# Entry
Amino acid sequence: MSDKATDSKYKVIRVEKTTPPTGMLGDNWYLYVIQKGNLPNSIMECKKTGTLKAVTAHAKDVANTINLRNVKGGRK
# Structure
């Protein structure tokens, strides 16, 4: 059974080690990907430095913030 409310929420679909953005130093960069449901045109890819645990927590917080802003009736 599919829950439409869950399907329409943004969620972290991947966090993986990556190269630094152009001009940035360091070797502890991660790429995180957030997607709304299964919509191929709603994918956000971002890079952040830190530990895997910290970047994953950050990505989940970003997804949660976006979901809260998209609640019908305005921001909460």
About this structure: The mean pLDDT is 88. The longest helix spans residues 52-69.
